[in-house]
Amino acid sequence: MFSNSSNFVQGVDLSFAVILGISVIFLVGVTFVMIWFVIKYSRKRNPKASQIEGNNKLEIIWTVIPTILVLIMFYYGWMGYKPMREIPENGLKIKTYAQMWSWSFEYPNGKVSDTLVVPVDEPVILDLNSRDVIHSLYIPAFRIKEDVVPGKNNKMWFIGQETGNYNILCAEYCGDRHSYMLSKVVVVPEAEYTKWYNDTVSSDPPGLAVMKKNACLSCHSLDGSRIVGPSFAGLWNKEETILSAGKERKIIVDDEYIKKSLYNPGDDVVKGYPQGVMISYKNNITDKEITMIIEYLKTLKH
Amino acid sequence: MSNENNNTISFYETGKGIFSWIFTLDHKRIALLYLYSVATFFLVGATLGILMRLELLSPGSDLMHAKTYNQIFTLHGVIMIFLFIIPSIPAVFGNFFLPIMIGTDDVAFPKLNLLSWWLYIIGAMFALSTLLFGDGPADTGWTFYAPYSVKTGTNVSMAVLAAFILGFSSILTGLNFIVTIHRLRLPGMGWFQMPLFPWALYATSWIQVLATPIIGITLLMIIAERVIGIGLFDPALGGDPILYQHLFWIYSHPAVYIMALPAMGIVSELIPTFSHRTIFGYKAIAYSSMAIAFIGYFVWGHHMFTSGMSGDARVIFSVLTFLVAVPSAIKVFNWVATLYKGSIELKTPMLYALAFIFQFLIGGLTGLVNGALATDIHLHDTYFVVGHFHYVMFGGTGFAFIGALHYWFPKIYGKMYNEKIAKTGFTFLFTGFNILYFTMLILGIKGMPRRYYDYLPEFQPLHVIATVGSWILFTGLIIIIVNLIRSKRKGPAAPRNPWGGVTLEWQVPSPPPLQNFDKKPILSKKGPYDFK
After folding, report:
1. Relative orientation angle of helices B66-78 and B27-55, to the nearest 10 degrees
2. Which of A80, B130, B347, B433 is most deeply buried (CB count within 10 A of its CB)?
3. Which of B307, B311, B326 sits opposite A66 (nearest CB)?
4. Which residues in chain A have Cβ-Cβ distances shorter than 8 Å to B277?
5. Could you tell me which of B341, B324, B482, B355 has the C-alpha nearest to residue B427?
6. B459 Cβ partners below 8 Å, 6+ apart?
7. Do B368 and A172 count as a contact with CB atoms less than 8 A apart?
8. How far apart are CA B379 and CA B364, in angstroms?
9. Which of A143, A209, A215 is nearest to B382 (CA)?
10. Residue A2 confidence (pLDDT)
11. Beta strands A155-159; A112-113: pairing state
12. Taking a C-beta distance cutoff of 8 angstroms, is the pair A91, B386 a contact?
């Protein structure tokens, strides 16, 4: 606590200090009085109890004082939160896509990255989109979190004030690999950011680049290990048993099967793998990109 | 039940055999049916909790796959919420003691009472059946958030159908208590001569009757969406996932008061009895129960501060959340004031009452941290929320339940429990509980999200501490249970009034006869807590 890594940290940590401070005083006070009474008025020390039925003055005091205290806490909570919703007009606007189980960030020039690289001291506005279920983008070091809800266009913003790497975590439960839906915010000096931003040439083979952009690799490995779906290693031309409308059938993984799996992923699922997890890429991956993916798959041997 | 006009033998001796129990109309036998059912499910839920803590002992995959872990935390939540906490105090101690405490021989509708237990059992069977077919138990978390709950292949429909049936069980208990309290009080017992446990049950019952139907219809909507594809919550079908969250929390927030209010009623009984003095601020405590039940309806949005709900709505829900804390604080002050100039005996039930106050305070105060906007944005969906919830539900309601079990054990079974072993069990439970859940509060502040099968290495030390706490806690539970079972068999006979209590249940034999009162109950003119 009490760092200054984003423009919200001080406001949030101040409300933490106020609320936790009042709470601790309250907890210690009540517990102390309770223990003190238990000792002082134990059966041994005080064999005859006094029958006191109540005291209206006290009731009023301990209604009014807590009411004032909680309203103070509310006020600090509100003030620490208010700037989070005052999203500036100008800033670096980044389209953020969440899907099971990865994050991707699309920059104004079309560059897509799985880490969120941002320049220091500049407002960053994230435009949150989900491709399947609800996720939640959480940057603990910046004290911010906002749900990424399919069909809703939530927004969040921040200013990274100290260079460095910070965790991005998914905070809304989203299935098997929820706890692996992690990324990083990398806050860098302006010059370094510009260099990174303008470097749009990927060193990856084109097919691999398409896969990375569409989060294929968060479920399908390249090395033969099982994550959620079948591994891509040695997949090309392999014979697989699939479940098609409840019936088992043997197929060879070819152009047609790859395309079908991308556009109608629920139809022919390889036996032993979960149904209904994968979304359709009909609107995200073009025919040309499918060709690139296939060319790349051919190079992956088992 | 035949009325043989023989009201001296205990209710255990009025009928023999399994059918005299599972088709009984006696509120005391129904209470015991509930006791054994909820206790069984509590142990199942606790075992699932221990398994989760074991998996989290070190990062990476240890005992189980991610999917199994997700199913276990869902089942843990469903069992603990719907099969343990919601029925626990009302259905067990409410059923047993409400009629006796207000001086009558049964609840208003004994047959509905039996039906409510059967619905509970049917609902429980439905919930457990998810283990046996298809893709296994739901993996959505007990909140069943859409659209994940619409898309997942696990047995969500069956799980929500179970919760739907259990809802009816809860409604019937609430309805029964409302009518019982209105119509069957002993002549001469006005509203303000009623003890505070019946008051708490009264407030709770209204929430059960008014809020539960909303979750019922919401769960049916999930089934409609899953089975026939009606687009209510999944945006892919034209639905709205935020609508689901509103509907879910409109019930589920008031529901936490269904879980907490009866526990507060228990504490309001324990403290005067073991302080041997009248309760401080009787009316303040009674009214604050009603205030909590009422304001509790309007705070559900505080579960959704990060959902994208409008900024103004977030502010209004936050301020209302802070206001609902005030009547709870009033109760705490009155309990502590009841200790003042009392003559305090630290028997086991009193230890549970004091632990309740301490832990409920932590639960309540951490609730304020969650109710404030700035801090909740950071803490929402982290371990802080899990810690907070367990402080209220386990540290509060769970401790009150075990305290009540010790307090009324002599009345229910006619035997005394072993005080020394009971205190040892309490010490383990209290120590383990606080190690386990206080650590979760710290984990949450450090940014550890909840429902994580795996975690970043920096969180490991705290996870280890929490898991060790879970072992100490479980040891305590075992000591407590073994002690109570042994005491039931071999404990010394209990007198009518072992603690010097003044509410009406201490005027009847231990255990009570079928018609409860063997002689006309004597009602003090000076209210329910007249210790003079």
Report:
1. 160
2. A80
3. B326
4. 49-52
5. B355
6. B59, B443, B446, B448
7. no
8. 15
9. A143
10. 58
11. unpaired
12. no
What pLDDT does residue B442 have?
Answer: 96
Is the Cβ pair A71, B322 closer than 8 Å? yes
The amino acid at A84: M
Please, is A32 exposed, middle or buried when counting C-beta atoms within 10 Å of its C-beta (0-12, 13-18, 19+)?
exposed
Where residue A245 falls among pLDDT bands split at 50, 70, 90? confident
Q: Do A70 and B275 touch (CB under 8 A)?
A: no
Round to whole Å and give the CA distance between B147 and B223: 12
User: From the CA atom positions of chain A, what is the Rg in Å?
Assistant: 28
Q: How far apart are CA A186 and CA A188, in angstroms?
A: 6
pLDDT in tens, B112-147: 999 999 999 999 999 999 988 878 888 999 999 988
pLDDT one-digit tens code per residue, B305-328: 999 888 888 999 999 999 999 999
Asked whether the bond before A66 is cis by omega within 30 degrees of 0, the reply is: no
Overall fold of domain B27-507: Cytochrome C Oxidase; Chain A (1.20.210)
pLDDT in tens, B325-373: 999 999 999 999 999 999 999 999 999 999 999 999 999 999 999 999 9
Decide if A78 and B337 are in contact by the 8 Å CB cutoff: no
Query: Measured between CA atoms, how close is A97 to chain B, in angstroms?
Result: 16
CA-CA distance, B6 to A90, in Å (whole number)?
85
pLDDT-derived band at B3, boundaries 50, 70, 90? very low
Distance CA B152, CA B14 (A): 50
Identify the pLDDT of residue A214: 83
Query: Predicted ipTM?
Result: 0.89
Domains of chain A and CATH, by start: 9-85 (1.10.287), 92-198 (2.60.40.420), 206-298 (1.10.760.10)
Closest by CA position to A183, among listed A123, A245, A139, A150: A139
pLDDT in tens, A111-132: 888 899 999 999 999 999 998 8
